Structure formats: structure tokens, C-alpha cells
Amino acid sequence: MVPDAFASPYTPNTDADREEMLRVIGVASVDDLFLDVPVEHRSPSLDLPEPQSEMELLRYAHGLAAMNKVPGEYACFLGAGAYRHHIPAIVKQIATRSEFMTAYTPYQPEVSQGTLQTEYEFQSMCAQLTSMDVANAGMYDGSTSLAEAALMAVRITKLDRIAILDSVSPLYREVLQTYSQAPGLKIDVVSAGRGGLEEGTACLLVQQPNFFGYMEDLAELSERAHSQGALLVVYSDPISLGLFKPPGDYDADIVAAEGQAMGVPLTFGGPYVGIFACKQRFIRQMPGRIVGKTVDSRGRTAYVLTLQTREQHIRRERATSNICTSVALIALMSTIYIAANGKRGMKRIAELCYHKSHYAASLISDIPGYELPMDGTFFREFVVRCPLPPGEINDKLLDRSIIGGLDISAQVPNGMLVCVTEMNSREEIESFTAALAEIGAKA
Amino acid sequence: MNPPELRYSKEHEWLRVESDGTAVLGITDFAAESLGDVVFVELPDVGSELGQSEKMGEIESVKAVSDLYSPVAGRVIERNERLIDNPELVNSGPFDSGWMLKVELSDASQLDQLMSAEEYESFLESQE
Amino acid sequence: MTALQQKFDEGRRRLLMDRSVPGRVGATLPPLDVPEQDLPPDSLLRTELALPEVSEGELVRYFSQISQSNFSIDHNFYPLGSCTMKYNPKINDEIASIPGLAAIHPLQPESTVQGALKLMYELQGYLAAITGMPGVSLAPMAGADGELAGMLMTRAYHLERGEPNRKNVLIPDSAHGTNPASAAMAGFDVVTLPSDANGDTDLEALRASVSEDLAGLMITLPSTLGLFDANIVEVCRIVRDAGGIVYGDGANLNALLGRVKLGDLAFDVIHSNLHKTFTQPHGGGGPGAGPVISGPRLRQYMPSPVVTRETDADGTETYSLSSPEKTIGRMGAFHGNFGALVRAYAYISTLGNAGIAQISDDAVVNANYILSGLKGYYDLPYDRTCMHEVVFSARNLKRAYGVSALDVAKRLIDYGIHPPTMYFPLIVEEALMIEPTETESKETLDYFIEVMRTIAQEAAENPELLHDAPHDTLNSRVDEARAARQPDLRWRPAP
User: Fold this and answer.
1) Which fold has domain B7-107?
2) Taking the CA atoms of chain B, what radius of gyration do you get in angstroms?
3) Contact B88/C481, CB-based, under 8 Å?
4) How far is A156 from chain B (nearest CA, A)?
5) So what's the ipTM on this one?
6) Contact assignment for C480 to A294 by CB distance below 8 Å
7) Is-contact A153 A233, C-beta < 8 A?
8) pLDDT digits (tens, 9 = 90+) for C374-402
9) Is the separation of the CB atoms in B76 and B50 below 8 Å?
């Protein structure tokens, strides 16, 4: 049998088509179209592997997937910024409709109302969840939303110090560092409990609940920031907002959040969507896409990208940010998630997380050798001080088909950050705590 | 038409001297027309000092943003607050309801550096 | 249209909050299976939560109906210049949703995600092979994010060499619009470079602009004029001789695959838009992915993490996330947009050497075929062989009949075609920037050419038809000025 020459299923034109087209163009060969490429650098070898048929590729990809230990097959108690929550079936069914999935940024409103109207819904729901005046259509992820919020506060106040609580996720602090290096902003890491802010502080950044899962005293922090002329920037957890008082109630000026927990698969860290909300008077300093409601030439309701003069393609080097995307598809997933769960469901999910995590914490605090070193109200995550290094415990948990909590011994000696959501059944929780007891007893 | 009683700058601002010696300023019909639908005007606060030919604010249409330059040095004593909610006044009445600032001149001799309506029109022609 | 029929169109526009009926639910949740715990004090709890109450079937119909007012690549020819709206293979989506890839947590121990890390490592290798540049970080989450990473790397490079004075970044007027904003976010001053009469970089102007304050050049190749800069070797030499970094905006990489490697042209750092060249679906405006790819000078500054591999004595391979030696830091909380990486990986794996090279060949043939088909009907500001896209101007129609690029673009909608990029690049008056991509057949291009010729004729005979276009969409042209003057950005209860 003679092997077939490879034919790409994604390029329809045949040799005959190409020949006819080249004739119309008036050149002899495809090479003639690339004569501007320096001759010594033309047509290098690509050194890629041989093409894989769909069947072969699927087999290989399943092989790669099989090398991973998958939450769901394993009981999973990891959170720390990415959360397992149940995703209603309609989220994927609607979001993968090709009208949504294979459209571009809605530059042409007449043929993009599907994207634009659902983005307006997203903005509305984010504003309602956070109790803020307005929200944009989405940022890359929660961490960049927070960094952009800091830069926005610097633009508004024209000050260049940023105070950030030491209870904000170390990963987000690293991202803030990346964003603040070029403008040369000074970052002060401060503790919740004490002291004022440095003179000339643009904003105070607070995570609620904080990295360790506990609620900060937002009323006190809001007062502390505002009394010194600084803005209050809150990094919020949207699932907690089904139950807890929203940042808008504490007079937050800017709110950033990670939308992933609302309908977005974990996907090893991305794509996610950053939520970004603020007070009305700051809208012209906002980064990112914003959709507005208007009318068409016949007076009918229509939606359109608006306030575009803030953005990179118009204001260029003076834009509020260089961001172009709004991660529209992921924002759509969150929109569908919020709509499907609705007023009752969003509250119910938060309650389930609260009760289950507190149940797990109460079991763990009874195990000899384990303790809960932090006081206060937590939502769905909490810190456990273990009798052994958490890394060792996690290795042993894996043998029992459990992915344990995050090892945070860098922040808390022998600390493990445990996350419990509605996805963790009572049986899973009790197997987990029994395993912790067994592993701890051998210490 | 560009009213003959006004003075004009090359940045397409107009200026009118009032009887009390203060000056009112805005942008010309030509400038408003080339911007298209004005959607936002950002003006300096009352009390701020303007330098001649220095940036004093911004004006935005749907898809463009332009700097506003002060044709003269002076102190802002009033601004057209109506433009905040009705920026379209700049399009509908650039020389009257779309005025922007009232200023106290620091140096009245700077007025001599501005053009008359006639000179401004020839300037516009030379720009084409 | 009768009033009752109109009701259908208006019904589609009713927002979820206005559809909300107390008591309706759209999803089910499990009962609480653990003992109820004490809730925190009321002072911490919210009292109101304004969210919709809509049933599942109503939700599906609402989203499905409104989705149908979108044009998309699965439904329409979408020749949007510099956006590379090509067909998105379905197998890529299927692979990306395998639970072993879609359901893994970013903070799992590395030993439990070896398959994911291996995929990332191999993709790093593919991108290095395609571009001829050794360093790849998959961390940036979009093209603009890759630009920011590349410019922060440039900054770190100059700072480490003790040259903080290098503040100027040269950006040709034919570069992508995002470049100046990215350079500014990385702390640089932007200097715009003009193009010469052929649309290439003006070498005289370039020589005059380089100084000891030069940080680098951000160039788009091919440019947004759709042209391969004939001076590119000289451009890179001038910048590098002056101590500057050459940054390549890889948004137009779809023209170059298998035809030239940017690394061979002495580029120091580029980004690649996986959502353009490598078929991550655009999603109505994201997600994307913008890996940053670097040559030897900047490799050690790449954003973290990158995936590294170690092979032990018995041949076992272990993959790890690591930080380049002098990294600029993290671009986001985790490891980049893994879902997009999986799709790009699947795409490159399907095509291999021959299929990847075919992409650019056909993309460039298709664009030149359109160029030949429309020359004489629309102005062609740079009459030379184009690459993967061609920029026409509607100024001939504007002058003769008062019909603008916008009118032409909107009339295309009536023929089921998405408008090209309009009014960009800024250096072309009434610009229409057309990128057909390689996934369109000759028949589709013939239809497009026929439509564009017809529109040129309609402009002469019935310009009103074009001014009023589009005619059959859910909305006619929208009032953008009103949207910007009185921003209405969220639902509010009716007064």
C-alpha cells in the first residue's frame, strides 16, 4: 500500500484551485509570493513531529490525561484561589454554542448583539453581587484585576504608594509586583490589626475572605483607608457574596474578584475571568472593555462597546491599560452560572460551603496533634496546623485517593490550607479527617 | 461661520474678551465638526492656573480623544458645567452654548498673538 | 412587521432581571448532608441579593435566541484583518474537555499533573521550533499580556546592564494599536516611526531615531499593511547595533509559518497569539493566550513559570514548573491559559511540518487572490504582493459617491459576510483590511469578490442602500454617541 500524502482537513484549496488562483494573481508559484523574505532565511525546516490523525491524537491526549490525578476521581480539598463547584449542565451547553464561541470581539454591534447583551448581563450581575455601581466586561483573571485596581487607584489619587494586607494571597502579591515594577510604585505590606498607612498611600488592598479563608474587619479597614485619603480596594470571593455582606456595603472604591468559581472548570489554572467593579465616578479610569445600552437608528434597544477612548486602540500610550480581551466566553459561563443558580441558589451554595467547611474544621480540631491556629469567621477555607510537614501528609493522602489542602508552611509552620465546597460529600470529608488522624497518629 | 468679534488660535480654540476684561473660550465649529459627535469634555477646575499653549483638558468623540490647549495664560474663574451632562452642546453651538471656560487673563498682550476671524479662515484654507 | 411580530424581537431583548419571577429556579442543589453549623453574626451577612429567578428552559431559550444575532466563524465568512478568524477545529475542543485536562487544579502537587506539564513542555518545544527562538513562557494570558511581558523583559535587560536611560521604544505607524500602551505600561516612552512610500519601515527615519536612549523597537511582521518589510534585516541590524532590543508582535504569524523564522531574522523576543494563529476560539473577545518567546539575550528574564524536564538515569522523565533565573515575575495567579494551550497543542499535533507550512502558503495565496480580484474596484494604497492580509481603501467611493469604508463594511453584512477591519491601520484613509485566512475555499473567496464588486457598483447607483445598511439584522446602526454620553452600564429596576 502506498502511504497517502498528508492532507490538512483545515485547508480546503486543492493543487488545482491553487494553480488557478496563482494564474489570476499572475505568478508562477507560491514561492513567488514570498520574495520579500530575505533569501538566506527562506523556508527553514520546522522540525515538528509527524502529523497525527484525530484517532492517534485522541489516544495520545488521553494518555497525557491519564498521567494526571483528577479531582472528582480523587477527593479534593484544594482551593487557594481556584475552586471546585458544581457546574450546571446548561453552562457548557450554552457557552459552547458556536455563535458565542467562534465570534470575535463585538466591534460590529449589528452582528454581535448576542455577545454584547450577555456581556451587559455579566456587568449587571457583577455589580449586583458586589453591590458596586458598575462593573466592566471582564479581565484576564482575578489576580490581574487586583493589580489593575491598584494601578487605577494610583491614577485616581496621583499617589504612588500601595498598602496591601499581609493576608492577601502571595500569588496575587507576586502579580502586583510584576505590574508595579515599571511605574516604580512603593508597596507596603501591612497587618490587619495595627497602625496607620504611610503618607501618600493611594489605596489599601484587602482580600475578603483573606488568603487563609477568614473574614477581615472591612468596616475598620475601610475607615482606616478613607480617613487617610486612600481608596479601599477589595478582592472579593463571589461565592461568599451569596451569604456575606458585599464590599459595596463597606464603601469599597474598587472591587476585584476571580470569576472562576462560578461555572468555570479548573483547567489547571486558566482561562478564568477577572471581575472588576467600581464606583460610578471612577468609570473613566477603568481598564478593560465596557458594554453600554443604547438605541439603534430606529429607536430599538441595542448594546455597544462604549467609553472606548479609555482603551489602548484609541488612547495608545496614555490608555488606562493595554488589555484588549474581556475573556468574554468565560464571563458568559459565569453569567449563565449565576442566572441558573439565581437568587436562591447563590445563597444556598454559599451556605453549603459554610456548613461543610465548618463541619470539617470541627472534626479536624478534635484530632490529636492537629489544631486550628487562627481565630475568627471563615467561609469555606481554613488553616490547619499539622503534626507533620503538610507535604508528607499530602503524599500519604494521595495513596488514599485524596488530594489534600495546600501546603502553606511558608506562611504558617506546618500549615495546611483546607478548602471544602458543596462538592465534598460528608463521606469524603470523614474519610479525609480519618486519614489525617491515622497519618497524624504515626507521627 | 466664525464670528468676527472672536479671536482664534491655531489649535482651533476661540476666545472672546468680555467687558470686565475676562475672557470666555471654547473650540471652533471647524474643530467640533472634525471631532464628530462629542461625548465627553474634561475641563480644569475653577481656580486652576493655565499656561499659554499648555494642555488644559481633553475632548472625546466616540473613537478619538484630543487635547485642549489654552490659547492664553490665566486663571479659571468659571467653567461650563452643562458640558458634563450635555457634551453635545459643543457640536450644536460651539460658539455659544458650547463655551468651555471663563478665565482671568494674566497677560492681555497675549491676545495680540491670536488670529482674527479672517486670518483664521485663511489659516484653515492653508491647512487643506 | 405587525405589532405582535415586533413583540418577538423585543422579547429577545428583555434582560434576565426583567424576566425574573419569584420562586422560579434554574438549577438544583444537593441537601446539606452534614450537621448544620452556627452561622456568623447577622452583622456580617447580607440582607438583599438582587439576582434573577428564571427556569432552566427559559434560560436556554433566552441565551440561544440572543446568540443567533451574532455572526461567527462557524456561520459566516469573517475576513477581519489582523484577527485571523480561521476555522477552529472541533477536535481541539474535545481534547480540551477531557476531564484529566479540564478538571485538574493548578495547585496540585507536580507529581499529580505530569501529563499537563508534559503537554506544556512539548508545546514550548513546538513554538520554539516554529519561531526559531529557544525560550518560551506560556504564562501570558493574551497577546497584550505577552507584549507587556516582553517589554518588561526588555526593561530588566537594560537595567541589569546599568542602562536605565534606555527609555525610548520605537513603534512603526504600521504596528498593532496595542503596542504603544504595552510599552507605556512597561515604563517606556513611545516614539512613532513613519513608513516609507512602499509601506516598509523608513530607514532614514529609523537611523535618525536611534540613540543611546534606545530601548528597542516593537515591530509587527508582516505589518498591519499586510506587507513583509523588505528592509527587515537592515531594521534589526540598526536597532541591535544601537544596543536596542527587537520585539516582534506575532499577531500576524499566520503569514510566516514554515516560510521564515523570526529568530533567524535576529528578533530578540516576540509573542504569539494562540487564539489567532493556533485556533483557540475567540469566544466573542477572549480567552486568548499570548506566550512570550525569546532569543538568548532575554531568555533568563521570562515570566514564570516555565516547564522544565529532567531525565534520571533510568530514563524517567519528570516535569516541573520553574522560574527563569532573573524572571520579571508572574503574569497571573497560575500557569497561563492552559485550556488555550491544549487547543494549540492539538492543532499543531494534527498538522505537523507539512500542515503547518500549508497554513501560511494558503493564507497568502488567498489574500493575494482577493487583492487581484478587487484591484480596480477599490483603491490599493500599496500595490505590491501582500502577505496574509490586504489593505484596500474606500476613498475612491468616498470621493465619488460619499460612500465610506463604514458603509461598505455594513453592506457586507446584508450578504452574510462579517465586515473587515475598518479605519486601521490609521495611515490608510478609509481603510478596509481584509484577512481571508487559509481555511476559506476558492468558492467563498469568489463569492466575496463578487459581493465587493457589487457593493462598489451599488455605491455608484444607490448610495442610500449602503448608508442604511445593514437591513436585516436585529439592530440597524447603533447610536454610539448616546452610549458614551449617558453611560448605561448595568440593569436597574424600572422606576
Assistant:
1) OB fold (Dihydrolipoamide Acetyltransferase, E2P) (2.40.50)
2) 13
3) yes
4) 14
5) 0.98
6) yes
7) yes
8) 999 999 999 999 999 999 999 999 999 99
9) yes
